[in-house]
Design a protein that fits this description.
Layout: H1 2-9, H2 28-32, E1 40-43, E2 46-50, E3 61-66, H3 70-82, E4 87-93, H4 97-107, E5 120-123, E6 134-137, H5 158-174, E7 180-183, H6 188-198, E8 206-208, H7 212-224, E9 236-238, E10 246-248, H8 257-268, H9 270-276, H10 283-298, E11 303-310, E12 315-324, E13 328-331, H11 338-354
Parallel strand pairs: 3-4, 3-6, 4-5, 6-7, 7-8
Antiparallel strand pairs: 1-2, 2-13, 9-10, 11-12, 12-13
Helix pairs in contact: 3-10, 5-6, 7-8, 7-10
Length: 365
């Protein structure tokens, strides 16, 4: 059911599912930006951002993970268990040498008697980080402690993590990196922007991975509460995975502003329920938002992640369903009800405000 649901995300048309606005059949991307850094291609209802695929969609890629804390280790575990078909080598790096050694040893000891394809696990040095096809960035500073009264845990980490990302961005610039950076550290969307600008990377070289778990949390409550199960039949989710998340329960006659807002509230506060129990909620995000979505990206499949929307002077990474193809990224161009479109636009505008604007962004050629 989940696979069919995801495949339908980009296939709905104005004729069979969506509500059209009075100004004509213009979808989300059509309405959100007049111009985009990369060319917007149109094929029927579908919209594509021109892109040079930074990864090998027809074979195996080498993937390096930066930082093996709670999130990073679980991402590594997910990629080890599920990523053998698209990952040849999984490189590990962490500031703590003992932790790096422990993770390398243990991940190399996972297996069973049945045939199983797994990537080669290898510890790497810092100067090897940007030698891979994909760099998964999980490094983070200042995660709020359990019991703190921080409302949006992700945004509380922004300032310190921007400086950390900038350090690695300069390293990517020095190495003239041509691969993909998968930003997992919070808040993923502003940090993806920081990595792109500091690393002089093209917009298609960076993706933020935080939205996948929010979709799964929305589906969890949709299955649990009958009044919310319209989301399971073709709802949408957009934006950053914090307070400015946008949940649209349905695109057809079942659309309800009240249901969408209720589902958003449950989805956004789902992590608080885990923290109330005395635990940090990192397992589902590491697997759903990062490991599984990264594997789907490398397989050229539909997944939830953030892509850069906007011009060189003004834009932001916005979370949505999308898939990477050889020379383009297919993005969600759904026809949203007016109020839902305004939610997305307000969320997008806030993300733009977080970024440094006013000058052309530096990028590699």
């Amino acid at each position: 059911m989940a696979e069919n649901y995801l495949e339908n995300l980009l296939n709905d048309t104005g004729e069979n599912k969506a509500i059209k606005r009075d100004d004509g059949p213009l979808g989300l991307i059509d309405k959100l930006v007049e111009k985009n850094w990369t060319k917007i291609e149109k094929e029927g209802e579908n919209r594509y951002f021109s892109a040079q695929s930074p990864v090998n969609l027809k074979g195996k890629n080498n993937v390096n993970i930066v930082a093996l804390g709670d999130v990073g280790l679980n991402v590594a575990l997910g990629l080890t268990l599920l990523g053998g078909s698209v990952i040849g080598q999984l490189g590990l790096w962490d500031l703590n040498y003992d932790n790096l050694s422990r993770c390398t040893i243990e991940l190399n000891q996972i297996g069973g008697l049945s045939s199983w394809e797994a990537p080669v696990i290898k510890a790497i040095d810092k100067n090897e980080i940007f030698s891979a096809d994909v760099v998964v960035f999980c490094a983070s500073l200042g995660v709020p402690a359990i019991g703190s009264n921080v409302k949006d845990v992700r945004m509380a980490q922004l300032d310190r993590n921007k400086a950390l990302v900038r350090e690695y961005g300069y390293l990517a610039r020095k190495e003239q990196y041509k691969g993909l950076v998968a930003m997992v550290a919070d808040p993923v969307d502003p940090l993806a922007y920081e990595m792109m600008t500091s690393g002089m990377l093209q917009p298609w070289q960076v993706k933020g991975y935080g939205l996948g778990v929010m979709n799964q949390r929305a589906r969890y409550y949709g299955e649990k509460i009958s009044e919310l199960n319209s989301y399971l039949k073709g709802g949408r989710i957009y934006g950053p995975h914090g307070e400015d998340l946008v949940v649209v329960n349905s695109l057809d006659q079942d659309f309800s502003e009240d249901v969408s807002l209720r589902l958003k509230e449950l989805t956004v506060t789902a992590n608080h329920e885990v923290r109330k129990l005395g635990y940090k909620p990192y397992i589902a995000p590491a697997i759903s938002s990062a490991a599984m979505a990264i594997i789907d990206t490398l397989q050229g499949k539909l997944q939830h992640s953030s892509v850069y929307v906007g011009t060189r002077k003004k834009g932001a990474f916005l979370g949505m369903s999308n898939k990477l193809e050889e020379n383009r990224i297919q993005v969600d161009n759904s026809y949203l009800p007016d109020v839902a479109f305004q939610w997305v636009k307000e969320s997008f505008d806030k993300l733009v405000e977080l970024n440094v604007t006013g000058q052309d962004l530096e990028c590699s050629e």
